[in-house]
Specification:
Shape of chain A: globular
Helix content of chain A: over 70%
Number of helices of chain B: 13
Radius of gyration of chain A: 24 Å
Distance between the termini of chain A: 38 Å
Number of helices of chain A: 13
Distance between the termini of chain B: 24 Å
CATH superfamily of the largest domain in chain B: MetI-like
Largest sheet of chain B: none
Low-confidence stretches of chain B: 1-6
CATH class of chain A: Mainly Alpha
Mean pLDDT of chain A: 89
Largest sheet of chain A: none
Number of strands of chain B: 0
Number of domains of chain A: 1
Helix content of chain B: 55-70%
Strand content of chain A: under 5%
Oligomer: heterodimer
């Protein structure tokens, strides 16, 4: 291709990707840019024209707010406790669904169904199941002599209940693990069996290393998701009881739409973005030591 | 565990494990079905009965009485999801063609940015986007939900690009020899060969739009413009003690996706695995 043709082709390339360039600029660059700008002002409403620069005072106020610490701790709980529990749940389910029995396809369908339930419907269903008076769960537990448990109304239980809900809708992660399990070469298992390894050893020496890239992927996605925990907490218990499920994003939402302090909400968003980026970066760095990539050796 | 040698667990043991897990996963859905078929009085029995005494659909009548906008919300959800699907297919396939078939340094520099945007936490963008939409006077319209879909979502661009890369370049060259240009290659060669990925994307975009809660919840205030999900959320507040009606509402919001899943399970699984296993 001569030079003029090449230039023309580059022009055509930009025509093809024009929708993305417009979308990326309009729905990412512009809002992100303005939010960085507004975070240092005292604008209260999205359309405010009457504002002044206040330097870092939004960030200072954010740290001074007593609810800030609580919301951060709650969020960290969802990350530090929630992510390992949900990931382990997905892995166990994937191992179960990888069993070689008749009718397994039907089981897989049923396990995946909850993932396709709209979150509001999921919350309705959980309210029905976990209702302390009339729910089926407490009725089932009473058979074993366990008294009424106030699942959604107790400070200690609301976070575990939300994590359980996450396991219930974890079908996508299960599918990713299932695909990874199917890609582990059979002959590796045969090799270690000849060496006298038992099932558990084979799992830790072969299965886990071979699917570690998928584990990393799922852990990163789930970590990012749980840092942003909001919808479940909002719909299930309005962040309560007594702020027990009040997360960082809930805080952002409240700053903007209840307190009408958009500049504060922007500052909080930037803080969250920095936090998530940092944690994702550290996860990626750490993972080099644990994740095994085929073909790299 | 891995299919190779399943002798450590008896077949009965395997089915027992699978069935126990099945009860955990399908049980809540079954409880929803049972609840929506009960009368209101039945749901206040202690201990609750597992199944309704007789099947009745009163809950649905009550639901549509209490909330006359139910039909409207269902129609809104369909309209938005369909507009999103059309936009996603048109824009993402064009953009993906650009990112899969051109040789320019810009492609290699921009595509990583496309991938990066897949990793941007959406809730970080929640407030900045809200401010933008306020300034555009898009709040309380469907535009914030639909327009972004017409401008190429990263996730779908990635799906299309992965598929386009598997189509042999020789086909493009044959078309150029016949006097075709970039657009003819895309419209006459690539797109007709991409039926499987188009189907996957249609389903995925529809499901994702149908499942979206936060977008419509934040950007739409007028009840008549609500999607079904946001409407149901309102309903939780209004009729929190009418369990059968709530269950009926949940059921209605699941049905379209459930039907889609029955017919297109293969595509959904494919889409999840394709975008998930790239890591």
């Amino acid at each position: 291709m001569n030079n003029r043709l090449r230039k023309y082709d580059t022009f055509v390339f930009f025509l093809f990707i024009a929708p993305w360039i417009i979308g990326f600029s309009l729905f990412f660059l512009v809002p992100f840019g303005t939010s960085v700008f507004y975070a240092f002002t005292d604008a209260r409403l999205p359309g405010s024209v009457d504002y002044s620069f206040v330097g870092l005072s939004n960030f200072k106020d954010m740290l001074d707010n007593p609810i800030f610490g609580k919301s951060l701790l709650n969020t960290l709980y969802f990350v530090v406790v929630g992510v390992p529990v949900v990931t382990a749940g997905m892995l166990i389910l994937a191992l179960l669904l990888n069993l070689n029995v008749k009718g397994i396809a039907l089981y897989r369908t049923f396990y995946y169904l909850p993932t396709l339930v709209p979150i509001v419907a999921t919350v309705i269903i959980w309210r029905l199941v976990f209702n302390s008076e009339f729910g089926i769960l407490n009725a089932g537990l009473s058979v074993f002599g366990i008294g009424k448990i106030d699942w959604l109304g107790s400070e200690g239980l609301i976070k575990p209940v939300i994590i359980l809900l996450q396991v219930w809708i974890s079908g996508s992660g299960v599918l990713i693990f299932l695909a990874a399990l199917k890609n582990v070469p059979r002959h590796l298992y045969e090799a270690v069996r000849i060496d006298g390894a038992n099932r558990l050893q084979a799992f830790f020496k072969i299965t886990l290393p071979m699917i570690s890239p998928s584990i990393l992927f799922v852990v990163i996605i789930q970590t990012m998701y749980n840092f942003q925990m909001f919808t479940e907490a909002l719909l299930l218990s309005k962040g309560g009881p007594n702020y027990a499920a009040y997360t960082f994003v809930y805080n952002i939402y409240k700053s903007a739409f209840t307190d009408l302090q958009f500049s504060m909400a922007m500052a909080q968003s930037i803080f969250l973005f920095a936090l998530i980026s940092l944690v994702t970066f550290v996860l990626m760095k750490l993972s080099n030591r644990f994740v095994y990539y085929e073909g790299e050796k | 565990m891995n299919g190779s040698a399943g002798t450590w667990l008896s077949r009965t043991g395997k089915y027992a494990l699978l069935t126990a897990a099945l009860i955990l996963f399908a049980g809540p859905l079954a409880w929803m079905l049972s609840t929506m078929l009960k009368t209101k009085a039945e749901t206040y029995e202690v201990p609750p009965s597992l199944l309704p005494d007789s099947i009745n659909f009163e809950a649905f009548n009550r639901l549509f009485d209490v909330q006359p906008l139910m039909w409207r919300w269902i129609q809104n959800s369909f309209a938005i999801s369909i507009l999103v699907v059309i936009g996603v297919i048109l824009s993402s396939s064009v953009v993906a063609y650009g990112f899969s078939r051109f040789t320019t340094k810009f492609k290699d520099r921009l595509f990583p940015i496309v991938l990066m945007t897949m990793m941007i936490p959406p809730s970080v963008m929640m407030i900045p986007s809200y401010v933008l939409f306020t300034k555009l006077h898009w709040v309380d319209t469907w535009l914030p939900l639909i327009v972004p879909a017409w401008l190429g979502g990263a996730y779908y661009i990635f799906l299309f690009r992965q598929f386009f890369l598997t189509i042999p370049q020789e086909l493009d060259e044959a078309t150029y020899l016949d006097g075709g240009n970039r657009w003819t290659v895309f419209a006459r060669v690539i797109l007709p060969l991409s039926k499987p990925i188009v189907v996957t994307t249609v389903i995925f975009a529809f499901v994702n739009s149908w499942l979206d809660f936060l977008g419509p919840f934040l950007y739409i205030k007028n009840n008549e413009m609500f999607t079904l999900s946001v409407g149901l959320q309102l309903l939780i507040g209004q009729t929190s003690q009418d369990f059968p009606a709530l269950a009926a509402g949940a059921f209605i919001s699941i049905v379209p996706i459930g039907i889609l899943f029955l017919f297109a399970q293969r595509y959904i699984v494919e889409g999840v695995v394709l975008t998930g296993s790239k890591g």
